TrEMBL record:
Residues 1-20 form the signal peptide. This is Peptidase A1 domain-containing protein. The keyword Signal applies. It holds the Pfam family TAXi_C. It comes from Solanum lycopersicum (Tomato). Residues 119-468 form the Peptidase A1 domain. It comes from the Eukaryota. GO terms for biological process: proteolysis. PROSITE patterns: PEPTIDASE_A1 (PS51767). Belongs to the peptidase A1 family. Keywords: Signal. The active site is at D137, D349. The keyword Signal applies.
Amino acid sequence: MEKFLHFHLLISILVVLGNANSLSPLNSTYIMQTRKRFMSIDPTKLPDPPMPSYTFTVHHRDVFEKSKFKDYDSLLENRFARCYARASYLASVLESQDGETTPQLVPKSTDIFYGSGEYVASFLIGSQMTKNYLLLDTGSDLIWWQCGPCEANKCYKQDQPLYDSTVSKTFRIIGCNHHGNKCRIVNPAYYCNLENFQCRYDMHYGDNSQTKGFIADDVITFLVGHWSSRVTFGCSKDQTGELNFTSFASGIVGLGRDLTDGYSLPSQFGGNLMSMCLPSFDSGKGSVLSFQTSKWPRAKSAELLFNYRYPSFYFVNIYKVFINDREVPVSPSWWNFNGPMMNGGMFVDTGTSYTAFPHDFYTVFRYIFREEVNDIPMAEIPVQPFDTCYKEDPNGRDLYFPVVKLYFGSVNSSTMLFLAQQRVVVHYRGLYCLAFVGWNSERSVLGMAQLQGVGLTFDTVASTLSFDIDACD
Ligand SMILES: *[C@@H]1O[C@H](CO)[C@@H](O)[C@H](O)[C@H]1NC(C)=O
Ligand SMILES: *[C@@H]1O[C@H](CO)[C@@H](O)[C@H](O)[C@H]1NC(C)=O
Ligand SMILES: *[C@@H]1O[C@H](CO)[C@@H](O)[C@H](O)[C@H]1NC(C)=O
């Protein structure tokens, strides 16, 4: 019996270590070195290898923004603020739709901040192949970029060269003067201007950042094989909201779930497959976003659920959550959508940094996490926005925190997302904090701190979202 126990323990330790090695070790010397290296990356010299068709290079936004901050902790603070802003934005989108019959992606209320996104992809646009970075957003359905020539003060300052539609030889306007064309009035953000038959949009992003323009198309180029593809996009002419969009990105790529007749990139590329690996926050490395293909084995999968109230969001069938081998005790049915408002459930959002759970669930989750932490002193005063923080080892030795296992649909190794190390805790101001938050919503958001470095394959025909740990090269 004793022998068996030892054997079992050894296996568990090996499993934990095997997975724990995946990200950098949790020792302060190592983390400081990694961050120092990260802070010294020159964002004007990022590798942007030639990409095959339907594939784009992806970077974390911190690579571009770090020069504005005095140190990595200040950069983190900005990320926390964005996470909060994004949560409020999502809440506004979700709540504004409650009680309405037509789904829409534009929040009604305009007094809410919007965090805009964590990752950018690099695009070569038009016949001039203008290189622009666009923010990835799984929560919206339009791809748009600033479209010159700009009228005075209508465009925000952008770091990349401005795309000019009058210079691009492949640019075409899409009007709304005949049936069967690509002008789709899918929600109130889109309309036909009957005076000049311009197919127009007016997207409000909560905080009064706003973009207006008209629908057009142009080619984007993938350098491998000199292959190009025509893309319907928002030619954005007026971005004069109260808050400017961020200068390192020239627009937003809506990656919302394939809607028939939508403008989102997945629906345009006709593929049912979208795959991406979003690089870990402080690696500074680029990774890929691909359509129609995935280069990962798709070892573990969740089911993608369709929520008719929020058709472009990627909901997943979360079933049970474990911390080490202890289950967070809620009935699996607790996660189901409930009521006509389709409350509850969990969706994946590339614009949210830290996974958010409903407060009641989070409280139990946190309680078990604290019980499962061994021999690491807790910090009396945690650092906002977190409430469960631990002191780093005074000798800088590696620390091991409990692992978090998310199961989708059933308890089976093939449906498990295994989270360890930096996917569970974040190092901030000399503390390690549990990198999850509780929020005032019945819905949960699976965020990027948890999915950093995980290969994600969205398959809308098989209705699966697959997870491959440590897939970024
Ligand atoms: C937004 O950008 C414009 C043009 O660069 C600038 O004039 C304006 O002051 C900016 N607004 C804010 C709130 O930063
Ligand atoms: C921290 O991690 C690095 C990289 O694995 C290792 O070389 C170093 O010895 C560790 N430091 C301590 C004090 O354990
Ligand atoms: C786990 O999932 C695999 C693949 O779907 C299946 O073959 C296997 O029977 C499942 N195991 C259990 C215990 O349900």
